[in-house]
Amino acid sequence: MKLRLVNGQYDSNIDSRDLALYTPSDASCYLGIHSQTLSTWLWGRKYPTVSGDRFFKPLIQVADPENELLSFFNLAELHVLAATRYQHKVSMKSVRTAMQTLEQKSTSSHPLISRDFMTNGKDLFVQTVDVNENLSRPLQLNFKAIMDTFLAHVIADEHDLVKKIFPIIKGQPDDRVISITYGISSSQPVIDGSGVPVWLIYDRHLAGEDVPSLAEDFDIPMDKIQRAIDYFDPRNS
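Above: the chain's sequence. Below: its structure in token form.
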């Protein structure tokens, strides 16, 4: 399903998860992706070769390129792409080749989060990356495991469309405490199951409130309150 603008208005026939919601800075913060890496995935970049400059094309179809705004589906795609940089930094060239291979097999405008990808497309993607990276056997197994983990943190609805993301960020626990669910708290990170925005807890903590008082105020266990603080804290200190 492709996003279209008609006379300055969004096509009413598209899924609302394909509408612009986030800035690139939001995505970088919520998913723990380096801003330069994210910029390359979204907008592409020029790179020099012996025969002159070439252009690395964007990897995903941005919801609103004119205003540089991303959709919830874009956020889910970026989460999946983050697996390629999580532990063993897969080269951009290999990611591009894998994406091209995937796009040839998919009719979706969001191939990284399509039903086909979640079933057998992921294996094609991993195999293409492995071949191009010429990885040793242990690293191949690690990359597949990382991709499996990231995909397990993308939750689909009854129509096999992404509705929730549990962000995986390097250096933070692999858990399901923080979630981003479309339509819950303006589709921003929350403590899962509570609807309480992480930014609210973080801001109140910065203002001087301690973990026990926040836990009592929101009726949320202290370990989850601390997790919410830690989710933002390392990237805002």
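The domain at 163-237 is CATH 1.10.10 (Arc Repressor Mutant, subunit A).
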